[in-house]
Amino acid sequence: QVQLVESGGGLVQPGGSLRLSCEASRMLVSLGNMAWYRQAPGKQRELVAVISLAGMTHYVDFVKGRFTISRDNAGNTMSLQMNGLKPDDTAVYYCNAELRQSSWWGQGTQVTVLS
């Protein structure tokens, strides 16, 4: 079992930045792919970015060039640096970790970009 705890959300002006963190209950070197998802009110949860154990990354189009995902395999923290925030980025952001057939989620952290 893996516990994930997100932090770093908050209220920000358009064009501003936030850095989200996901702290895992075990070292990230023992986990597979990790990802950030988000869910806006009334919408389905959607993928934002993925990072593999080897550090390969994938971003969805709407965050390319603005968000950067990273992980510290020697530690237990994954991060999402978000720059150039837009009102459409307002959502609850969730951390996800996978290992073989298992998948774990954090409780989410709210990001609100003023409009």
Protein described:
With about 120 residues, the chain is an all-beta fold. It contains no helices and eleven strands.
Number of DSSP strands?
11
Helix fraction by DSSP (H/I, runs of at least 4): under 10%
Helix segment tally: 0
Which parts are unreliable, with pLDDT below 50 for 5 consecutive residues or more?
none
N-to-C span = 39 Å
Describe the biggest sheet? 7 strands, mixed
Judged by helices, strands and strand pairing, the structural class is mainly beta
* Mass-distribution shape: globular
- H/E element order: EEEEEEEEEEE
Radius of gyration: 13 Å
Feature tags:
11 strands, 0% helix, four-stranded antiparallel β-sheet
Provide a brief overview of the structure:
The chain has no helices and eleven strands. With 115 residues, the protein is mainly beta.
Topology of helices and strands:
Blueprint: E1 4-7, E2 10-12, E3 18-24, E4 34-39, E5 46-51, E6 57-59, E7 67-72, E8 77-82, E9 91-99, E10 102-105, E11 109-113
Parallel strand pairs: 2-11
Antiparallel strand pairs: 1-3, 3-8, 4-5, 4-9, 5-6, 7-8, 9-10, 9-11
